[in-house]
Design a protein that fits this description.
By secondary structure, this protein is an all-alpha fold. It folds into two domains: about 180 residues, no CATH class; about 240 residues, no CATH class. The chain has 16 helices and two strands. Strands 1-2 form a two-stranded antiparallel sheet. Helix 12 packs parallel to helix 15 and helix 14 runs antiparallel to helix 15. The longest helix has about 40 residues. This is ABC3 transporter permease C-terminal domain-containing protein. It is a multi-pass membrane protein. It is found in: Cell membrane. Keywords: Cell membrane, Membrane, Transmembrane, Transmembrane helix. It comes from Occultella aeris.
């Protein structure tokens, strides 16, 4: 263990050359871990604030209890992109170390030593990012203080999570990093030459369609028979979105094969081939926008409840707060999706560094490579929006009927919300342009 620790410290202190983006990946990974932790603490703090307010309500099933349920629903939904971002940061934390670790295996390092060095890398960056995120969460609270719920704003102290949440969040982020790093060890731990092997991924099967259809059917039955409680609806909606993550990669692989056959330029062909090679990665890079689209659909549905049509002031306040909460959840999901896409794009560029250098040496213009990378995001982005919109409709139509489809203001709100979230994701992709230059240097 001491030998592995000494070697890890030596490699950490090694100065990276221009063609080795190790320093850049470390900064991006720490940034992603920091964003994950800060947003996680803000969301948990918000839920705790609603729960504290409800604690003073003598009726646990009254409006205060309903607010807690809504806050819990938003918290559950936002855990999905946060876990995705944490996993992306962990994969980036060990990016491009596969070849180095394989070389160490060839030089005589044991599997245990290689594993320990990988875990230390991931844990160090996750811990640094998590601690920065804890500090950043106190600043992030300031951004939501102007918002009003239940007729009044939250105080700063109300939005600070309980003390035990902070070490728990740091531990959880570090654990996610270690699990993702452990999964990456399969490339080098089995054989030192594992990273040199190129394999064709097994095609994804259409049977991934079945779970989401079953979930939609269960929701329709529960709603139409009057058996749907708010808790059941929350579970079904959260489960339905989880099923979207099963469906998404299969749809991505189908779309990728179609685009490959119909590509009319080099950039589109390169992007499509990358989608076919790794549909799961392509879906993960835009999975956050699928959630944002899903939330935008729910927020648009809430907009149908006009405060002016409420029977009393309490109901009008509830309608306004539901709309505010929906947009806040959408904004958080959009920002997390943008950071996640930027981190994943940077990781993919680093992982495909050899391919980028080969294309550059073959005379491929940098603008073509940038265009291919942008389409590598924009094509999955369009697919994710389409799949998530269809999934949202499966849940909203049984509950609300077709009335919201004819409401122009509701549809406009949905389109603008999705467009804003997509713009954030594309900005995240453009932000990874520097990584291409670093790889080619």
């Amino acid at each position: 263990m001491k030998a592995a620790l000494d070697l890890w410290l030596l490699l950490r202190g090694r100065s990276a050359g221009r063609s080795d983006p190790q320093r850049l990946t470390s900064v991006l990974a720490v940034l992603a871990f920091a964003v994950t932790t800060a947003v996680l603490l803000l969301v948990v703090g918000g839920f705790a604030a609603f729960a504290e307010r409800a604690g003073g309500d003598p009726d646990p099933y009254g409006d205060a209890g309903f607010y807690v349920t809504l806050a819990g629903t938003a918290t559950i939904l936002l855990m999905v992109p946060l876990v995705t971002l944490g996993g992306a940061a962990a994969r980036l934390a060990v990016a491009r170390r596969d070849e180095r670790l394989a070389a160490l295996r060839l030089a005589g390092a044991t599997t245990g030593q290689v594993s320990l060095m990988t875990m230390l890398d991931a844990a160090a960056q996750a811990l640094a990012g998590a601690l920065i995120g804890v500090a950043g969460s106190f600043l992030l609270i300031l951004t939501v203080l102007p918002l009003q719920f239940q007729g009044r704003s939250f105080g700063y102290a109300e939005l600070i999570a309980p003390w035990w949440v902070y070490p728990t969040a740091v531990l959880a982020v570090t654990l996610v990093a270690l699990l993702s790093a452990g999964a990456s060890l399969r490339k080098v731990a089995i054989t030192p030459l594992g990273v040199a092997a190129r394999t064709t991924p097994n095609p994804l099967h259409w049977s991934r369609l079945v779970p989401i259809l079953l979930f939609a059917a269960v929701f329709v039955v529960l709603w139409n028979t009057g058996l749907a409680s708010i808790v059941v609806i929350v579970m079904v909606v959260a489960g339905g979105f989880a099923m979207l993550n099963l469906l998404g990669p299969w749809v991505m692989s189908v779309v990728g094969r179609i685009v490959v056959r119909r590509a009319k330029d080099v950039a589109t062909l390169i992007a499509a081939r990358r989608l076919v090679d790794s549909p799961k990665t392509a879906w993960r890079s835009v999975g956050g926008i699928a959630l944002a689209t899903f939330i935008a659909g729910l927020a648009a549905a809430v907009a149908m409840y006009d405060p002016a049509s409420a029977s009393d002031s309490a109901e009008a306040t509830l309608y306004r707060d539901m709309a505010t909460g929906g947009f806040l959840t959408l904004a958080i999901a959009g920002v997390v999706a943008a950071v996640s896409t930027g981190v994943m794009q940077a990781g993919r560029v680093i992982d495909q560094g050899g391919e980028y250098r080969a294309l550059h040496l073959a005379g491929t213009d940098l603008r073509v490579m940038d265009s291919a990378r942008l389409r590598e995001t924009s094509i999955p982005l369009a697919v994710a929006v389409g799949v998530a919109t269809a999934g949202a409709l499966l849940f909203m139509v049984p509950a609300l009927g077709y009335a919201f489809l004819t409401a122009t203001s509701v549809l406009l709100q949905f389109v603008l919300s999705v467009a804003a979230a997509c713009a954030l994701v594309l900005l995240g992709t453009l932000a990874s342009r520097r990584v291409v230059r670093t790889v080619l240097a």
